[in-house]
Amino acid sequence: MKNTIAKLVLLTFICSATTHKAFAQLTITGQLRTRTELKDGQGTLFSNGAKPASFTSQRTRLNLGYKMDRLEFGLSLQDVRVWGQDVSTINRTTAENNNGLKLQEAWADILLSDPAFKNKSLRLKIGRQILSYDDQRLLGALDWLQQGRSHDVALLKYQSNSWMFHLGASENQNKENVSGTLYNSTPPGNYTANTNGGAMYKSLQFLYIGKKMVKGNASFLFLADQFNKYTTDNVGTKTFVDGTWGRMTTGFYFNNSFDKLNVTASAYYQFGDNQTGQKLSAGLLSLYTNYDFSKAFSLGPGIDYTTGGNSGNTTHAFDPLYGTPHKFWGSMDYFYVASPFGKNGLMDYYLKAAYKTSSKLLLNGAIHQFNSAQKISSSDVAGSKTNFGAELDLSGLYQLNKAISFEAGYSHFFATALLASSTVKNIAHPNLNANWAYLMINITPDLLLHKN
């Protein structure tokens, strides 16, 4: 990996020394993003007496892009770490779990069609890349997490005026096997492979059809992912065997502005077998309306619904795949964030507001009311209940200049005993008031920008 870094730095210097014509083809950008957090029940409720956590995490990226005739090339090298995880001198024994250096992106985008056709194009993008579509509910960059998310995939893209057709496919293996194609999908390290705390897919295919409108867009998605089958012994040890379980997710997305009213809606259905081999029939419905009272202030309500429960051997728990749940289900990340939540489904009623005080300062606020989609009977709570609690989210973003921004936020969760019960979060002697605060500095310089 050190040789890789050295070669990349050398390449940067070589490219920087080339002619002005080369500068028109080459982009080199960087990112340094630090985030200091105070966690007093963020992610899950604390037991009474538990101490809050505080730390600073850092993402560092070096991004290189190059364009030439019929070809675009992208490379992103990323390091993610917590301040203090390594000692202050050279550390030759860093634990593997602390090694945050990885290749975030490495792809080539080839124009297959004739460049003379200006309104139509057929391209092949292949390699490690970010998949981000629509509002990132099911396929997203997961940019809030310092490590983000990217996929090893081949993507065939056809563009014709306002229409776009994307066909993607991926096949994963742990290593170059001599024989067989068994795939150990156990999540590596402390990170889960998908949004809902599940295992990594063995293979994935999807079709995306999008239509741009004057003030919005609409789309259709069909995604299939397969998981390597396994057996489990009486102590829970997995043994991977031949064959896969296949899951399908399909549905529609719509976003458009009608004068000052903005409407976003989506509906998705999931079927097949989930990653544990259980029969699946689940759905997600979402509607959000937002009204621009002025150029500076907007406000609007929304509702999200994911199914839950079981019918015989069939589960109705919806899995939000490879999306960005931090954007939707509260900044406290209690639902669908790297944890297998969702067996009873979720109802999220919310109200969001945004106030842009100037070209540099944006303030955001949201109130969420979270309920179970199914009535829950718990030995910890009398009777059947649905109320999980409410959350308040506040944040502000200040853009100092094009390359430097500051962001701060505070969230509070007013939990109920049902959320802490053994049936849901399973927290003994819970503190039903949780807090979270953060301060983030994001620096994204253009390393080839030469201006006085």
Automatic annotation (TrEMBL):
InterPro entries: Alginate_export_dom. This is Alginate export domain-containing protein. The keyword Signal applies. Residues 25-416 form the Alginate export domain. Keywords: Signal. Residues 1-24 form the signal peptide. It holds the Pfam family Alginate_exp. Transmembrane segments: none annotated. The keyword Repeat does not apply. It comes from the Bacteria.
